[in-house]
Amino acid sequence: MKMTNKITMKNINFRKLLPEESKIYRTIRLESLEKFPDSFGANYQEALKIEKFPMESHIEEQTKEKFVFGAFTDEELIGICSFVKGEDNTGNIYQMYVKNEFQGKNIGQGLLEAVIEEASHTYHGIEILLEVTPGNDKAYKLYKKAGFLEIKSPTTENISNITMKYQV
Q1: Domain coverage including residue 98
Q2: Which neighbouring-strand residues pair with 85?
Q3: What kind and span of H or E run contains 71?
């Protein structure tokens, strides 16, 4: 008889990454770039050459303005979602990624909710923005489900991406 490893939300722990977890962040970040090269504004081969990602330092220093939440099951990091405080009362979500075998189990939704809760607790009334690559329908639907609305991009930095906003 084949046993399946059923993952439920109650088996998932969502929390901010700890200083000693910067290396596991690096591992999953590189995985995300390798598996989804068109979804992130970075290149896997170029990223391999970087000795230490800036976000690794922010994790180690526990920077309030820049943090990464992780989704864990049995101590394994299976998803990440980064937040970076912008100017005024805005912030951005970057690097949203859930390992392929754990997708479709509301883990991305849980990560978004955890990051939004942390950001809104720290910065009252903050406006949270993110970008999604056109054609990345799974991500787009997830962001819509989480309460993000498509808006006209406030910058022309990456005009090819879709900008979405969540008002806390």
Answers
A1: 9-167
A2: 91
A3: strand 66-73
Q: Indicate the SS3 state at residue 8.
A: coil
Residue 1 lies in a domain: no
- Please give the structure tokens belonging to residue 31: 């995985």
Q: Is residue 2 part of a domain?
A: no
- Chain length of the chain: 168
Residue 3 lies in a domain: no
Could you read off the pLDDT tens digit of each residue along the chain, which spans 168 residues?
333 445 555 689 999 999 999 999 999 999 999 988 777 777 888 888 889 999 999 999 998 899 999 999 988 999 999 999 998 899 999 999 999 999 999 999 999 999 999 999 999 999 999 999 988 899 999 999 999 999 987 665 556 889 999 966
| Structural domain contains residue 138 | yes
d(C-alpha 17, C-alpha 27), whole Å: 13
Report which of 150, 152, 155, 149 is spatially closest to residue 87, judged by C-alpha positions: 155
What are the backbone dihedrals phi and psi of residue 152, each rounded to the nearest 5 degrees, phi first?
-75, 135
